[in-house]
Amino acid sequence: MKIPYIIKLFLERGVFPKVKSELEKLIELQKTDTNIRKLKKAIDGAEQRRAGIEQEFELHASSIREIQGRRDKAQTERANLENQIAETKTYIERAARNLKNSQNQKEYETAMRETDALQKQTGTFETQALEKMTEIEEVEKVLEERSEEINSLEANKTAAFADFDAELKKNRKQFDNETKKRHEVFVTLPAQLASVYNRLAQRSRDGIAVAEVVNGSCSACFMKLRPQVRLELKTMDKIMTCESCTRILYIAAPAADAQAVSQEI
Ligand SMILES: [Zn+2]
User: Fold this and answer.
1) Tens digit of pLDDT for each residue in 141-167?
2) Is 151 helix (H, G, I), strand (E, B) or coil?
3) Which residues sit with Cβ closer than 5 angstroms to ligand 1, an ion?
Protein backbone atom coordinates (compact mmCIF):
# COMPACT_ATOMS: atom_id res chain seq x y z
CA MET A 1 0.00 0.00 0.00
CA LYS A 2 1.30 3.43 -0.97
CA ILE A 3 1.70 5.74 2.01
CA PRO A 4 0.51 9.28 1.24
CA TYR A 5 3.36 11.77 1.16
CA ILE A 6 1.94 13.83 4.01
CA ILE A 7 1.83 10.87 6.36
CA LYS A 8 5.27 9.77 5.22
CA LEU A 9 6.56 13.21 6.06
CA PHE A 10 5.05 12.95 9.49
CA LEU A 11 6.45 9.49 10.09
CA GLU A 12 9.91 10.52 8.96
CA ARG A 13 10.27 13.95 10.43
CA GLY A 14 7.07 14.75 12.28
CA VAL A 15 7.24 18.20 10.67
CA PHE A 16 3.78 18.85 9.43
CA PRO A 17 1.67 17.57 12.34
CA LYS A 18 3.93 19.20 14.92
CA VAL A 19 3.68 22.67 13.40
CA LYS A 20 0.04 22.22 12.66
CA SER A 21 -0.60 21.30 16.23
CA GLU A 22 1.25 24.40 17.40
CA LEU A 23 -0.89 26.53 15.12
CA GLU A 24 -3.95 24.77 16.45
CA LYS A 25 -2.80 25.53 19.97
CA LEU A 26 -2.35 29.18 19.04
CA ILE A 27 -5.83 29.28 17.54
CA GLU A 28 -7.26 27.66 20.63
CA LEU A 29 -5.32 30.02 22.86
CA GLN A 30 -6.63 33.00 20.91
CA LYS A 31 -10.22 31.78 21.14
CA THR A 32 -9.81 31.20 24.86
CA ASP A 33 -8.22 34.61 25.40
CA THR A 34 -10.93 36.36 23.41
CA ASN A 35 -13.51 34.57 25.50
CA ILE A 36 -11.68 35.54 28.70
CA ARG A 37 -11.66 39.20 27.61
CA LYS A 38 -15.37 39.07 26.87
CA LEU A 39 -16.13 37.45 30.23
CA LYS A 40 -13.88 39.87 32.10
CA LYS A 41 -15.64 42.80 30.47
CA ALA A 42 -19.02 41.37 31.47
CA ILE A 43 -17.84 40.76 35.05
CA ASP A 44 -16.19 44.18 35.37
CA GLY A 45 -19.31 45.90 34.02
CA ALA A 46 -21.66 43.94 36.26
CA GLU A 47 -21.96 46.58 38.98
CA GLN A 48 -22.87 49.21 36.45
CA ARG A 49 -25.44 46.96 34.77
CA ARG A 50 -26.91 46.09 38.17
CA ALA A 51 -27.21 49.79 38.98
CA GLY A 52 -28.91 50.26 35.60
CA ILE A 53 -31.53 47.62 36.41
CA GLU A 54 -32.05 49.16 39.86
CA GLN A 55 -32.46 52.60 38.30
CA GLU A 56 -34.94 51.37 35.72
CA PHE A 57 -37.14 49.80 38.39
CA GLU A 58 -36.76 52.82 40.64
CA LEU A 59 -38.00 55.00 37.79
CA HIS A 60 -41.18 52.88 37.54
CA ALA A 61 -41.61 52.76 41.29
CA SER A 62 -41.18 56.51 41.72
CA SER A 63 -43.65 57.25 38.93
CA ILE A 64 -46.18 55.01 40.71
CA ARG A 65 -45.40 56.59 44.09
CA GLU A 66 -45.96 60.02 42.56
CA ILE A 67 -49.46 59.04 41.37
CA GLN A 68 -50.28 57.36 44.68
CA GLY A 69 -49.05 60.48 46.46
CA ARG A 70 -51.38 62.64 44.38
CA ARG A 71 -54.30 60.38 45.28
CA ASP A 72 -53.41 60.42 49.00
CA LYS A 73 -53.09 64.20 48.98
CA ALA A 74 -56.45 64.62 47.23
CA GLN A 75 -58.06 62.22 49.72
CA THR A 76 -56.65 64.14 52.70
CA GLU A 77 -57.83 67.44 51.21
CA ARG A 78 -61.25 65.99 50.58
CA ALA A 79 -61.48 64.69 54.18
CA ASN A 80 -60.49 68.16 55.45
CA LEU A 81 -63.20 69.74 53.31
CA GLU A 82 -65.77 67.26 54.66
CA ASN A 83 -64.73 68.19 58.21
CA GLN A 84 -65.04 71.86 57.37
CA ILE A 85 -68.49 71.28 55.86
CA ALA A 86 -69.60 69.43 59.01
CA GLU A 87 -68.16 72.16 61.20
CA THR A 88 -69.82 74.91 59.16
CA LYS A 89 -73.12 73.05 59.43
CA THR A 90 -72.93 73.21 63.24
CA TYR A 91 -72.37 76.97 62.92
CA ILE A 92 -75.40 77.19 60.63
CA GLU A 93 -77.46 75.35 63.23
CA ARG A 94 -76.23 77.75 65.89
CA ALA A 95 -77.04 80.71 63.62
CA ALA A 96 -80.50 79.24 63.01
CA ARG A 97 -81.06 79.06 66.79
CA ASN A 98 -79.85 82.63 67.15
CA LEU A 99 -82.24 83.66 64.42
CA LYS A 100 -85.12 81.92 66.16
CA ASN A 101 -84.21 83.44 69.52
CA SER A 102 -83.42 86.91 68.22
CA GLN A 103 -84.87 89.60 70.47
CA ASN A 104 -84.57 92.54 68.17
CA GLN A 105 -84.02 93.61 64.61
CA LYS A 106 -80.26 93.91 65.07
CA GLU A 107 -79.87 90.38 66.46
CA TYR A 108 -82.14 89.08 63.71
CA GLU A 109 -80.11 90.76 60.96
CA THR A 110 -76.82 89.58 62.42
CA ALA A 111 -78.07 85.97 62.57
CA MET A 112 -79.40 86.24 59.00
CA ARG A 113 -76.10 87.59 57.69
CA GLU A 114 -74.23 84.88 59.55
CA THR A 115 -76.47 82.17 58.11
CA ASP A 116 -76.04 83.55 54.58
CA ALA A 117 -72.29 83.71 54.90
CA LEU A 118 -72.09 80.20 56.36
CA GLN A 119 -74.32 78.75 53.65
CA LYS A 120 -72.21 80.40 51.00
CA GLN A 121 -69.11 78.98 52.68
CA THR A 122 -70.69 75.51 52.77
CA GLY A 123 -71.48 75.81 49.08
CA THR A 124 -67.86 76.67 48.31
CA PHE A 125 -66.60 73.76 50.41
CA GLU A 126 -69.03 71.38 48.73
CA THR A 127 -67.92 72.47 45.25
CA GLN A 128 -64.29 72.00 46.27
CA ALA A 129 -65.07 68.59 47.78
CA LEU A 130 -66.73 67.57 44.52
CA GLU A 131 -63.72 68.71 42.54
CA LYS A 132 -61.48 66.66 44.83
CA MET A 133 -63.78 63.68 44.35
CA THR A 134 -63.39 63.97 40.54
CA GLU A 135 -59.63 64.31 40.92
CA ILE A 136 -59.50 61.20 43.12
CA GLU A 137 -61.56 59.23 40.59
CA GLU A 138 -59.22 60.24 37.76
CA VAL A 139 -56.12 59.26 39.69
CA GLU A 140 -57.74 55.98 40.78
CA LYS A 141 -58.44 55.26 37.11
CA VAL A 142 -54.78 55.76 36.20
CA LEU A 143 -53.75 53.50 39.07
CA GLU A 144 -56.28 50.91 37.95
CA GLU A 145 -54.91 51.01 34.40
CA ARG A 146 -51.41 50.47 35.73
CA SER A 147 -52.45 47.98 38.40
CA GLU A 148 -50.82 45.03 36.62
CA GLU A 149 -47.54 46.88 36.40
CA ILE A 150 -47.83 48.03 40.03
CA ASN A 151 -48.65 44.56 41.33
CA SER A 152 -45.91 42.81 39.38
CA LEU A 153 -43.19 45.42 39.88
CA GLU A 154 -41.61 43.85 42.95
CA ALA A 155 -41.81 40.32 41.52
CA ASN A 156 -40.33 41.51 38.21
CA LYS A 157 -37.53 43.27 40.01
CA THR A 158 -36.72 40.16 42.04
CA ALA A 159 -36.77 38.03 38.87
CA ALA A 160 -34.57 40.49 36.97
CA PHE A 161 -31.97 40.46 39.73
CA ALA A 162 -32.14 36.67 40.02
CA ASP A 163 -31.43 36.41 36.26
CA PHE A 164 -28.66 38.94 36.57
CA ASP A 165 -27.03 37.14 39.49
CA ALA A 166 -27.30 33.77 37.75
CA GLU A 167 -25.63 35.16 34.64
CA LEU A 168 -22.87 36.78 36.65
CA LYS A 169 -22.25 33.53 38.51
CA LYS A 170 -22.12 31.66 35.20
CA ASN A 171 -19.69 34.22 33.76
CA ARG A 172 -17.42 33.97 36.79
CA LYS A 173 -17.39 30.19 36.58
CA GLN A 174 -16.64 30.29 32.85
CA PHE A 175 -13.93 32.84 33.47
CA ASP A 176 -12.26 30.50 35.96
CA ASN A 177 -12.57 27.54 33.59
CA GLU A 178 -11.24 29.47 30.62
CA THR A 179 -8.35 30.88 32.64
CA LYS A 180 -7.42 27.36 33.68
CA LYS A 181 -7.73 26.16 30.10
CA ARG A 182 -5.58 29.04 28.86
CA HIS A 183 -2.80 28.10 31.24
CA GLU A 184 -2.97 24.46 30.21
CA VAL A 185 -2.62 25.34 26.51
CA PHE A 186 -0.05 28.06 27.07
CA VAL A 187 2.45 25.90 28.94
CA THR A 188 2.54 23.39 26.06
CA LEU A 189 3.70 26.07 23.57
CA PRO A 190 7.41 26.44 22.78
CA ALA A 191 8.77 29.34 24.84
CA GLN A 192 9.59 31.51 21.83
CA LEU A 193 6.16 31.09 20.28
CA ALA A 194 4.51 31.75 23.63
CA SER A 195 6.42 34.99 24.01
CA VAL A 196 5.59 36.06 20.43
CA TYR A 197 1.96 35.36 21.14
CA ASN A 198 1.99 37.34 24.37
CA ARG A 199 3.79 40.26 22.78
CA LEU A 200 1.30 40.42 19.89
CA ALA A 201 -1.69 40.05 22.19
CA GLN A 202 -0.50 42.74 24.58
CA ARG A 203 0.37 45.13 21.77
CA SER A 204 -3.10 44.95 20.26
CA ARG A 205 -6.00 46.78 21.86
CA ASP A 206 -8.41 43.93 21.09
CA GLY A 207 -5.91 41.32 22.33
CA ILE A 208 -5.83 39.58 18.95
CA ALA A 209 -2.52 37.86 18.23
CA VAL A 210 -3.84 35.15 15.94
CA ALA A 211 -6.11 36.29 13.12
CA GLU A 212 -8.24 34.22 10.83
CA VAL A 213 -7.98 34.82 7.10
CA VAL A 214 -11.44 35.77 5.83
CA ASN A 215 -12.08 36.30 2.11
CA GLY A 216 -8.35 36.40 1.45
CA SER A 217 -7.74 39.20 3.98
CA CYS A 218 -6.33 39.36 7.50
CA SER A 219 -9.42 39.64 9.68
CA ALA A 220 -7.57 41.86 12.19
CA CYS A 221 -6.18 44.60 9.94
CA PHE A 222 -8.20 43.81 6.78
CA MET A 223 -5.13 43.82 4.58
CA LYS A 224 -5.56 41.72 1.46
CA LEU A 225 -2.99 38.92 1.43
CA ARG A 226 -0.77 38.28 -1.54
CA PRO A 227 -1.74 35.14 -3.51
CA GLN A 228 1.61 33.59 -2.64
CA VAL A 229 0.98 34.11 1.09
CA ARG A 230 -2.50 32.62 0.77
CA LEU A 231 -1.10 29.60 -1.01
CA GLU A 232 1.57 29.04 1.62
CA LEU A 233 -0.99 29.46 4.37
CA LYS A 234 -3.12 26.71 2.89
CA THR A 235 -0.34 24.19 3.29
CA MET A 236 -0.16 25.11 6.98
CA ASP A 237 3.41 23.85 7.18
CA LYS A 238 4.81 26.90 8.92
CA ILE A 239 3.67 29.66 11.20
CA MET A 240 2.99 32.70 9.02
CA THR A 241 2.33 36.27 10.00
CA CYS A 242 0.43 39.11 8.38
CA GLU A 243 2.78 41.36 6.40
CA SER A 244 0.84 44.39 7.54
CA CYS A 245 0.04 43.87 11.24
CA THR A 246 2.42 40.95 11.99
CA ARG A 247 -0.30 38.88 13.63
CA ILE A 248 -0.16 35.12 13.23
CA LEU A 249 -2.49 34.05 10.43
CA TYR A 250 -4.58 30.96 9.90
CA ILE A 251 -7.23 29.68 7.56
CA ALA A 252 -10.12 27.98 9.29
CA ALA A 253 -10.13 24.73 7.38
CA PRO A 254 -13.18 22.49 7.58
CA ALA A 255 -12.45 18.73 7.60
CA ALA A 256 -13.24 18.40 3.89
CA ASP A 257 -10.83 21.22 2.96
CA ALA A 258 -8.06 19.76 5.08
CA GLN A 259 -8.40 16.54 3.17
CA ALA A 260 -8.36 18.38 -0.12
CA VAL A 261 -5.12 20.08 0.89
CA SER A 262 -3.39 16.81 1.69
CA GLN A 263 -4.59 15.34 -1.60
CA GLU A 264 -3.20 18.31 -3.49
CA ILE A 265 0.19 17.64 -1.92
ZN1 LIG B 1 -3.09 41.86 9.55
Assistant:
1) 999 999 999 999 999 999 999 999 999
2) helix
3) 218, 220-221, 223, 242, 244-245
